[in-house]
Amino acid sequence: MKLQDQTILITGGAGFLGSVVVSKLVERGVAKAKIRRPRSREFDLRHWSDCQTVVRGVDLVIHLAAKVGGIGYNQTHAGELFYDNLMMSTQMMEAARQAGVKKYIAIGTVCAYPKFTPAPFREESLWDGYPEETNAPYGLAKKMALVQAQSYRQQYGFNAIYLLLVNLYGPGDNFDLISSHVIPALIRKVQEAKMKNLPFVEVWGTGRATREFLYVDDAAAGIIQATEMYDGAEPVNLGSGREISIEDLITTICRLMNYRGEIRWNLDKPDGQPRRRLDIARAKKFFNYAPTTDLETGLKKTIKWYLR
Fold first, then answer.
1. Among 1, 129, 147, 227, which residue's CB has the most CB atoms within a 10 Å radius?
2. How confident is the model at residue 232 (pLDDT cuts 50, 70, 90)?
3. Which residues belong to the active site?
């Protein structure tokens, strides 16, 4: 698919990931006039009529809009995360189908995988168990987009693809301690400890859980490559292919930020899923996906942006 010839709708296009996707599309020669970015203050994608409105005259939809957060936010907003994400994704895909959209890119999440998936997570394991409890409502809501995409392809011949992303990070991330993911939360905690001369930072869990992180520019590049080159029914992982323990992560962040205080583990808080690491062989095979930003380089850029 030649993206330069398409009118492209990007939901969540003003957000953390969406703004980078837009920038990369422009770099590839897509005219800004051909990129539509409906704002949440004008269109509520939980409402059917708004979904119908935003897809009119569109060739291609990249559905990035989502309600997200870390473990704590998932625990306290489980109902909202389930309902809002399910309604947005289900109605957007149906509206796109009815409007005759040529291609639809649905974005899933590593949270959809079973709690005890063998690492590295392969797409074939996606239905082998129930997700980790703290983020299961969010993960299952996002997982339904895969069912919808495959069933629409079967009945209507609708070209919808489904990409599974790990936790993203990078400049422009959400650093709110209530709703952020782990990397921005830890960066903010360490900076506040430095500013207040605190002797320690508190981190949830045991530190033994592992996570995989993907720099936002690499995620945006992978989404665009899949949009151009992949038309299959099967889900495809997008990640870095590398995992790190939370203990090693906070140690690295403290080193990069020159903080020498103690790390205290709050054992009353959950670790979440024990391990997370994706197998990205399918993405490499189908659309030549290869992330280029290693974690330490990405962390340095993220910290620099936050401090500025």
1. 227
2. very high
3. 138
